[in-house]
Amino acid sequence: MSLKPSPEETPGLRRRFIVSSLIVAGIFCVLALRLWYLQVLGVDYYRKLSERNRIRYVAIEAPRGAIFDRNGTLLVDNRPAFTVSALRQEIEDREQLFHNLAGLLDVDEDHLKEDWHKREGLPRYRPLPLLEDVGRQAMEKVQENSVDLPGILVEVKPFRAYPYGEMASHLLGYLGEVTEEELSQSEFSSYRSGEMVGKTALERLFEDRLRGVDGQKRIEVNVRGRELRQVTTRDPLPGQNLYLTIDAKLQQAAEQAVGDRAGSVVALDVNSGEILAFVSRPNFDPAWFARGISSDEWRKLIEDPRHPMTNKALRGQYPPGSTFKMVVALAALESGRVTPATRVQCDGSLKLGSYEYRCWKKGGHGSVDLNTAIKESCDVWFYRVGLDTGIDRIASVAQRLGLGKPTGFPFGGERAGMIPTRAWKKQRFGTSWYDGETAISSIGQGFVLATPLQLASMTAALANGGTVWRPQIVEKVVTLEGDTDWILKPEKLVETAWPSSSLNAVRKGMEAVVNEVGGTAWRSRMATLRYAGKTGTAQVVRRKDDNEEAPDDDDIPYQYRDHALFVSFAPAEKPQIAVAVVIEHGGHGSSAAAPVAKAIYEAYFADQGNGAATPQPVASGD
Asked: Residues 223-242, buried b or exposed e (16+ Cβ, 10 A)?
């Protein structure tokens, strides 16, 4: 049998052969054209793609700028800290890794999972932080057991360090991770997920200057994303440094004097408005936030009934009590209704209609003039003089002394306090103003409210002759090269030319409060310094019966005890510094608040005696 195709079959085979050859030739032409395109036309584009697959850019965090006090004492710095991070592209069994790491470092496995999920949005090539600010011992354990921890590495990052622990935490502020909400705002367009940002106070206000410029590490990776070698590195640029107006030794003295009590202290330079001490107690540890605050730590802060997260110097509004009496005295003198020699008979109370307004001294002070009224804090003198002067005149003087409106402190969230007027009450409540409201306002109760910062500004204005300065906290900003990039310019808010006779009469009364027998702050006098002040005790809750004897503080629940206040300036003759102290539920200003001011003056004027006190840093824990 023959295998040769028949003549009629030959054309079909030829056609199929030709078609197949054309298809093959076409495929080779397409491949050749594609190869020509890749090697000639698209060479630049694909070289870039190849480079991107081979090269990764990893940011190197820039150290934030440091913060110093007015004398160059370091308040906030940076320290290197170990962070345990995960290279996700190298991890095959995540659950087993969590189990091994938790057992090795004795941490909660759920905490590791929580941090993983929280930061899962980071780019895959960036290490994902699992445990931040771990100790050297933990770092060594991780390195020693690296075989059992594939994909885990230890990084060194700059963390905020606080040589004085919690001191001035409400002033300095704290850091936290930038949130998704913040990242959506144009202000944070240059930030990356997981980056730290200033959240409050100075850290937030000067974020753009403190932040610095991150460096960059250029590394070569294989197809699995594993680092092969480091190609180039651009060093980070640290942020600018802040120099504050506060004095660390005064700040430390004030905080130690307040102790564990809740309250606030503000000390000002009376001739510039510079803040020398700024205390809000209790405070918090900003290091908790720098390394990532735990849920237990956060719960401890928000459940504390003394509100450690509230900046009481700016947001605490208190009845000023008898510290308001200087305002009433100036208003009365300005009105011409009284003179420093005007006497009022105090028998222990003032009858007004069907109501009786008591003096703190049950038996009364007898015949009282202005000096004695301030010195012994006679309520009846101020009831009577306040009624003669009128609430609107009192309010006008209070506003010219910086009360009833924000001082312009740059942090934001500052409360305005309250200075009532007849028009305000009509608008607010739709009712008329009563004489009894003038009487209680004249001793700093009723509707009258002020913040500690406002009380300090008021006292500074009394001390300097009538100028209310805008409180300043930053003296200058210095670049990495040591150049001054910004410097403080004092700013006057209000300037009143009070008659010297009126102002001197009020100041002499304040001087007698501290330095004369019978003065309410006599026990806080100083042998080496003559200063002037005024005590205040502000009721939190009014007693049901004004005629009943006031119970001892120990018999009153803490939250119902009176606030203790003291405002003062020193020296009495040529004032340099003004201090306002508020101790929440502290009882009496003479016993609870005045000693705090005395401690501040001892620290401030120490260099005029046996040498300046030096602030002592505290040991920072892990």
From this structure: eeeebeeeeeeeebebbbbb
Q: Which of 227, 244, 261 is the last residue of a domain?
A: 244
Measured over the CA atoms of residue 296, residue 298, residue 301 and residue 307, the dihedral's sign is negative
Three-state secondary structure string covering 286-313:
HHHHHCCCCHHHHHHHHCCCCCCCCCHH
Name the 3-class secondary structure at 103: helix
Q: Are residues 111 and 237 in the same domain?
A: yes
Cα–chain center distance at 42: 56
Q: Do 212 and 301 reside in the same domain of the chain?
A: no
3-state secondary structure 234-246: ECCECCCEEEECC
Q: Give, in order, the Cα–Cα distances in Å from 305 to each of 9, 169, 559, 560.
A: 103, 18, 9, 13
Catalytic residue among 264, 322, 442, 457: 322
418 to 149, 402, 414, 450: CA distances (angstroms): 61, 11, 13, 6
If we measure between CA atoms, which residue out of 409, 410, 383 comes closest to residue 394? 383
- 591: annotated active-site residue: no
Q: Are residue 269 and residue 227 in the same domain, yes or no?
A: no
Structural domain harbouring 148: 57-244
H helix or E strand, kind and range, residue 23: helix 10-36
For residues 230 and 273, state if they share a domain. no
Does residue 620 lie within any of the structural domains? no
Q: For the purposes of burial, counting CB atoms within 10 Å of the CB of 148, is it exposed (0-12), middle (13-18) or buried (19 or more)?
A: middle
CA-based max dimension of the chain: 152
* CATH of residue 109: 3.90.1310.10
Residue 129 lies in a domain: yes
Residue 289: CB atoms within 10 A of its CB come to: 22
Looking at residue 524, the DSSP 8-state letter turns out to be G
What pLDDT is attached to residue 372?
Answer: 97
DSSP codes of every residue in 421-471: -HHHHHHHHSS---HHHHHHHTTT-TT-BB-HHHHHHHHHHHHHTSEEEPP
Distance, CA of 186 to CA of 183 (rounded, Å): 8
Alpha carbon 221 to its chain centroid, in Å, reads 43
DSSP letter at 63 equals P
Pairing of strands 474-478, 241-244: antiparallel
CATH number at residue 280: 3.40.710.10
Alpha-carbon distance of 615 to 252, in angstroms, equals 6
Rounded average pLDDT per 10-residue block, the chain, 622 residues: 56 74 81 71 56 61 92 93 79 79 80 76 71 80 78 82 94 89 84 84 94 79 56 82 96 96 97 97 90 82 91 96 97 95 95 92 94 97 97 97 94 93 96 96 96 98 96 93 87 93 96 96 95 93 52 70 95 96 93 96 78 50 40
Residue 14 lies in a domain: no
**Total domains, the chain:** 2
